[in-house]
Amino acid sequence: MDVHSELRTVPKVAAVVILSVTYARLVSSRFRPGLPRLILVLPVVLLFPFLPMLFTSIHFRTNSGFFISWLCLFKLLLLCFGRGPLDPSFSLISFISLASLPVKLPTKTDPKDQSSFHALSPKYLISTAIKAALFAGLISLYRFKNQLHPNLLLIMICFHIYLSLEVMLATAAIMAGAILGMELEPHFNKPYFSSSLRDFWGHRWNLMVSAILRPSVYVPVRSCMGRGAAVIATFIVSGVMHELMFYYITLLPPNGEGLMFFILHGICTAVEGWWAQHEKWWRPPKILAMVGTIVFVTGTSFWLFYPAMFRGGAQEKGFMELEAMVGLFTGTW
After folding, report:
1. What phi and psi values does residue 184 have, to the nearest 5 degrees?
2. Domain assignments of the chain as residue spans, ordered by start
């Protein structure tokens, strides 16, 4: 991987995103929500999934894909129907930031409200620094990957995914907070304390995805087909988008394993919600529920999620890229 070449591609992709989002704001300011607005914004929607392919590395491709092809694209689709976080009345800077970064406009909230928090608070900065240090330490251990047991290596990769998302999203939010004074959208909430699948997916894991799927899939499906169908439909859409993320990683056509992972979790979450409606039915002790949830998520991840993500030697390519990035910052590459 040519790190310098990838870094030169970043401002080019950013410029295309800024111009595209600016165009979407212009269109939405002149056309009411509905089909005309959707038709005019559609070229941007069709363009965004291809932008990450301008990068040659797995990490740049996947990270840009998450921001551009998923979060930003879904926000623009919601805008077409007059829903979601974007509004053409926002200033251009605010509109671009809200569309492309994990932030939202500052609001006056109760200090006990955990739905948002400022990215420049000392507590958050310290927490991010600790996670960045743990991530750096984890990367340094990969030099011994050939001596590690395969299962231990997979466990390390689990923490790698969690910490890398935390650090990546926090960095983007801190930059937006420093420059624009915006609030951070929460992204994780101690997922290791999840006591159910509904708790894990809806309240603790990758909350930005939950926040964007809720108005775009869950709410409209629930209004016409009910809660169970809405849950399953939401997981199916999440599965399709994860297949796209896996394509950015492997550059191989999807084999359906990632989609099956989310369909399985969608069905189990819907059944769990149905069971919860019966107040007198048995409930496991909280500690048992927490252990069972983590075991189920981890076990199904090893079975379906990780094999789909690491096809075609993606794991080794990812290790090589990490070594190249570490070498760039240490001056050994």
Report:
1. -80, 135
2. 1-102, 114-186, 188-333
Distance (Å, rounded) from C-alpha 161 to C-alpha 126? 20
Distance from C-alpha of 187 to C-alpha of 189, rounded to nearest angstrom: 7
Q: Which residues are registered as beta bridge partners of 103?
A: 184
Q: Which residue has the tokens 């926090």?
A: 170
Alpha carbons 216 and 199: distance in angstroms, whole number:
20
Q: Give the burial string for 174-203 (b: 16+ CB within 10 Å, else e).
A: bebbeebebbbbbbbeebeebbbbbbbbbb
Q: Could you read off the pLDDT of 50-68 as tens digits, one per residue?
A: 999 999 999 899 989 999 9
pLDDT at 33: 95
Residues paired with 118 in a beta bridge: 183
**Residue from 106, 78, 299, 104 nearest 208 by CA:** 104
Low-confidence spans in the chain with pLDDT less than 50: 109-116, 332-333
| Calpha distance 191→203 (Å, rounded) | 8
Q: Is the dihedral of CA 113, 117, 123, 126 positive or negative?
A: positive
DSSP one-letter string for 197-241: HHHIIIIIS-HHHHHHHIIIIIHHHHHHH-HHHHHHHHHHHHHHH
